[in-house]
Amino acid sequence: MREPTAGWGRSDLPTAAAAPHTSTMVGATTVETFDPDAALPLLRALADPTRLRIVTLLGAGPRCVCSLQEEVDVAGNLLSHHLRVLREAGLVEGSRRGRWIDYRLRPEAFGGLERLLAGVREGGTAACCATSSRPAPSRRTAARPAVG
């Protein structure tokens, strides 16, 4: 069981996105790299349509939970669950304002995803993927038999 936290939106809480990128020196240039394996928890969190809707709403700026509740068609306890998943993935952070909690996106988490996806778009060989420990997929060279 998890220990309760002392407050909402604390930046010192461990998250899946705590260290997804590193800096590497290539010659005299520093290249930012992003570990593709670190993206998995972020992508899993975004794979749910309700969480993707929440992130889209927060993309317009910080929102109070009550404002999100009006826009997202789920029960309050389920909205809290989705926000917790997004917080634990490091995609959003919350801050208490009296009785209310305001949520906002964490741009640094999305910056790493942008670099990773840019590497995919550019053919998968960009510097963002240089530190991946996964081997490159092999391609079959044998022709398939004709069907017919």
Q: Which features would summarize this protein structure in a list?
A:
single chain; 148 residues; alpha+beta; Arc Repressor Mutant, subunit A; two-stranded antiparallel ribbon; disordered N terminus
Mind telling me which CATH architecture this is? Answer: Orthogonal Bundle
Q: What distance lies between the first and last C-alpha atoms, to the nearest angstrom?
A: 59 Å
| Tally of separate helices | 5
Shape: globular
- The domain count comes to 1
* Topology order in helix (H) and strand (E) letters: EEHHEHHEEH
**In CATH's first tier, which class applies?**
Mainly Alpha
Strand adjacency order, main sheet: 3-5-4
Overall pLDDT, averaged?
73
The CATH superfamily is known as Winged helix-like DNA-binding domain superfamily/Winged helix DNA-binding domain
Structural class by helix and strand composition:
alpha+beta
Low-confidence stretches: 1-31, 125-129
**Secondary structure: helix percent:** 25-40%
What is the makeup of the main sheet? 3 strands, antiparallel
**CATH topology term:** Arc Repressor Mutant, subunit A
Our estimate of the beta-strand percent is 15-25%
The total beta strand count reads 5
Radius of gyration equals: 19 Å
